[in-house]
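I have a small job for you when you get a moment. Can you supply me with one protein entry, sequence and fold together? It will help me judge whether the discrete encoding reads sensibly. Write everything out right here, beneath this request:
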Amino acid sequence: MSPAATAPAGTGPWFRRYRKTSPPRLRLVCFPHAGGTAQLFHGWPALLPSDVELLAVRYPGRQDRLAEPCVESMSELADRVTDALADHLDLPLVLFGHSMGSSVAYEVATRLEARHGISPARLLVSGRAAPHHARRTGLHDMDDDALIAGIRTLGDLGSEAFDIPELRELLLPPLRADYRLIESYRPAAPVPVRSPITAYVGTEDHGCVREDVMAWAGLTTSGEFSLRAFDGDHFYLVPREGELLADVTERLEQDGRSPAPA
């Protein structure tokens, strides 16, 4: 039986929940990239174990939250997602973020520890340098054409939509808001989390310098950090979805345990 996507029933506006046939033993919470949507993860449930429930984060200002204002502050976004997760802490959590989503996932992990005494079983970060090593691009201050050209250098994930005036008008505001959020976020002394951290990167992702990605190792007190590279650019996770999910599944098999107290 194919997984069914549901929202907001039982999850509120913040998550799209994918249910499978078996009672879940673990929740995988997935955070999209700048300008991205929960749709990025729609194919994942079919490649995950049947007892893993996926919650894909739905940022305001896009798709069925189009009427809501975009969030342009990391602290506000992480606070609101953490609040929304408060009703979903009955199972172990693993957090996965891609690009900007990696930093949001990390900030949510710090809040889960501080506010709820729960450490995610693992933090999976993809296509993003550690927060204190991220390099600014200034794209959020550039005009629309320069912003679009800048994101196209990362890889081609649906960028043809920007060539359609009606879609461009819908897509640009959340993209610019997300870039403003992530480029204004640079904690000088980020707090380490207890969760083990696994970092993923595309071999041709020229925006991710290896030493900056390796710096995630300093943000876990567990002593467990690993880096895995896949062929591809910043959006390697689309063509390499099967390989990535095989690796994620292996990590989840290790992590289906009770949440650890902070």
